[in-house]
């Protein structure tokens, strides 16, 4: 993490104070698409194929640095595929992707891990490491970044307490409920204060009170400068997040009637 950023604890205090605790895309026979995540903003435009059929098409949008976005749409609209492209798990079949001032569309696979470490991901199926405890799953990003045990202990304990799992730190994923696993996955995704957080239905397995608490956690992280993209069907989350923008996928295409996704502010201010 960069020393210029506030501590996560400061972000949590801020959170508690508010509520406790791009060029045209390539088309068949058309122009080349372009997507970028630069120093001050994210511009993204992707295409993907699944079993020979287009899942995402004609996408052209930018995300302001420090923005909070909810990605919505009916089942099968392509939300998960879009998130996979965003966290570099897949490549576009047409168009360009730029992240962190780099065009990564054709980047060699061996350079991608460095960029992925700047992205936090909450998977819909959790993807916890079964033989590691909840503590060690959450600590994994910090250890990969080279943190010592002394530097890991406090933040991980604090994060587990924040998501209500202080007493489950030594439990392994097979012994945790679905909701508990989801909270571990969220804690792991945010522990390193990523520059970009991508979450696929992060509150789908928790009760309303915990969903609110997790939303506060995302809000705190966003206030520290992280760009947040949350795919969800829960309209109540959207209603409880003032200032968040709505992205809607319909049959693989992005609805943007006002043009705000194509031309957002360079950076979200006033946090």
UniProtKB/TrEMBL annotation:
InterPro entries: AAA+_ATPase, ABC_transporter-like_ATP-bd, ABC_transporter-like_CS, ABC_transpr_LolD-like, Cell_div_FtsE, MacB-like_ATP-bd, P-loop_NTPase. Pfam families: ABC_tran. Its main location: membrane. Keywords: ATP-binding, Cell cycle, Cell division, Cell membrane, Membrane, Nucleotide-binding, Transport. PROSITE patterns: ABC_TRANSPORTER_1 (PS00211), ABC_TRANSPORTER_2 (PS50893). SMART domains: AAA (SM00382). Residues 40-270 form the ABC transporter domain. GO terms for molecular function: ATP binding. It is found in: Cell inner membrane; Cell membrane. GO terms for biological process: cell division. It is a peripheral membrane protein. NCBIfam families: FtsE (TIGR02673). Part of the ABC transporter FtsEX involved in cellular division. Important for assembly or stability of the septal ring. PANTHER family: CELL DIVISION ATP-BINDING PROTEIN FTSE (PTHR24220:SF470), IMPORT ATP-BINDING PROTEIN (PTHR24220). Belongs to the ABC transporter superfamily. Homodimer. Forms a membrane-associated complex with FtsX. This is Cell division ATP-binding protein FtsE. It comes from Sphingomonas sediminicola. The lineage of its organism: Bacteria, Pseudomonadati, Pseudomonadota, Alphaproteobacteria, Sphingomonadales.
């Amino acid at each position: 993490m960069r020393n210029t950023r506030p501590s996560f604890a400061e972000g949590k205090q801020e959170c508690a104070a508010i509520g406790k605790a791009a060029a045209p895309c390539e088309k068949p026979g058309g122009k080349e698409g372009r997507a970028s995540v630069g120093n001050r903003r994210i511009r993204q435009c992707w295409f993907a194929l699944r079993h020979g059929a287009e899942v995402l098409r004609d996408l052209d949008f930018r995300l302001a640095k420090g923005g909070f976005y909810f990605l919505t749409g009916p089942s099968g609209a392509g939300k998960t595929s879009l998130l996979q492209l965003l966290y570099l798990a897949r490549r576009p079949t047409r168009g360009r992707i730029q992240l962190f001032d780099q065009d990564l569309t054709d980047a060699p696979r061996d350079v991608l891990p460095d960029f992925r470490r700047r992205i936090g991901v909450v998977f819909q199926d959790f993807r916890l490491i079964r033989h590691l405890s909840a503590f060690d799953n959450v600590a994994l990003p910090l250890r990969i970044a080279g943190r010592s045990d002394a530097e890991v202990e406090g933040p991980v304990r604090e994060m587990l307490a924040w998501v209500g799992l202080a007493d489950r730190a030594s439990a392994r994923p097979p012994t945790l409920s679905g909701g508990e696993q989801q909270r571990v996955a969220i804690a792991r995704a945010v522990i390193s204060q990523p520059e970009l957080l991508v979450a696929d239905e992060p509150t789908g397995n928790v009760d309303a009170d915990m969903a609110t608490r997790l939303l506060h956690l995302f809000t705190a992280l966003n206030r520290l400068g992280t760009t947040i993209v949350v795919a969800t069907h829960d309209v109540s989350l959207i209603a409880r997040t003032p200032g968040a923008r709505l992205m809607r996928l319909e049959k693989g295409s992005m609805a943007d009637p006002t043009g705000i996704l194509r031309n957002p502010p360079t950076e979200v201010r006033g946090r």
